[in-house]
From TrEMBL:
The chain crosses the membrane at residues 15-38. This is Cytochrome P450. Its cofactor is heme. It comes from Apiospora kogelbergensis. Heme binds at C434. Coiled coil: none annotated. The keyword Oxidoreductase applies. Pfam families: p450.
Amino acid sequence: MSKSLLLGSIDPTHLGLSLIVAAAASALLYVVVLRPLYNVLFHPLRKYPGPKLWAASRLPYLRNWLSGRGPQEVLALHRRYGDVIRVAPDELSYLRPDAWKEIMGHLPRGVLENEKDPTMFSGFNLLDSLIAAPRDEHGRLRSLLSHGFSAARLRDQQPIIMRYVDLFVERLRDKARADPAGGVNMVLWYNYATFDIIGDLAFGEPFGGLESATLHPWVAVVFQWIKRNAQVVAVRRTIPALADLVDTMLGKPATAQVQEHMGYIKAKLDKRLGTVTERPDFLEENANLLIIAGSETTATALSFATYLLLTHPRVLQRVTEEVLGAFSSEAEITFNSVQSLKYMIAVLDETLRIFPPVPVPVPRVTPPGGRMICGEFIPEKTRVGIWHYSMYHHPGNFALPEEFHPERWLGEDPRFAHDHKEAFEPFSYGARNCLGRNLAYAEMRTILARMLFSFDMRLSPGYERWADGIKIHNLFEKPPLMINLTPRGDQERANLRSRH
């Protein structure tokens, strides 16, 4: 039979379909079999311990991230496999205290740093966003913003902040007197206070939460946006081609929320500064960042501190007596005076250890040529991260890590003499640590001291296990925390003060 007759007998349509099926089968074979085998048997990270399924594919990591229980699951893996584990084909997780310096510390100029994972910041303007900018640009942006968070600036801001703290306590006192048996949702009220404070500091006016006892619509959008962004980033790290599709599948309302979010910031900036013509992107990007970082995380810490105190009566009694022993009036509670409350500060640090407001990592990526980390060479383009929650709950770093013991920070209990306190970095580490650390501590100390001075607090029935099962999508998704408040009288304060 001639060659032409052979070719003539082949159906071109059938040939095309056969090629498509063969290509699809080859791609499937590579994705399902060959690539996972390479990741487990031949990848440069193959020597690091961890579950083989996590080493083979990023799908377990994606499931873990989307589950809302990611930090707890990673902690369980560390307890099984060690303090440096492989959690994805190209990603390592560290629980060694020196990892902070090795991964995120300052480096001499000219030495390439471990850059932030670009998949986390694809929606950011890298030239204008403090959180996402490359090293040199970050240094310039930080120098422009840092003066607003200096000790001198914090002193100047105290009257503004205290005005909202006063209003916060006044509104809670009114609610407690109007309905003594009714509970107050402290998750909401702490958010009202912290968002109003940061709104005034950033825009010259509050969000109106304390006055209206409702979340401003923009604030509600922020919480939805944070969760949505966590989901999209998780998909982008695993299957980049699907990230935009998942973003779209979340629906037009999600996109509209982001547009509303940024539009609100621009409108506020325009109102305060006049029409923004110089570097509008810089102002919008960083106002957005500072509002979220300067409000929700502080409210989270206060919510968990309240819960932990009310479930640990011994600690509550000691810290209450400390506050009432230090002050005879609300006016005496200031940014400076609360610094003398050593036990209350230990309460807040222990809260941040057990429930770090940002429990997840912000991974870095090793530079070209790789990098030595904790005494071992790590190949280039490797994601390296520290899960705050896992680091602080690791029994190799802290004794009795699941228990609430503020004494561990005071050096008065020998059980905690060997704790690795250098592992504790709730505001991150190095050149990119949190600019608002001093502001956050000042707010937390002052608000908590005022709560202890002004109210007798009790958990409402049914909230004794409030923290159990809380989901995490970048931040904690906190359900209502209902508290019964009874305003303290002068005689009660005097009685408690006498015990101190």
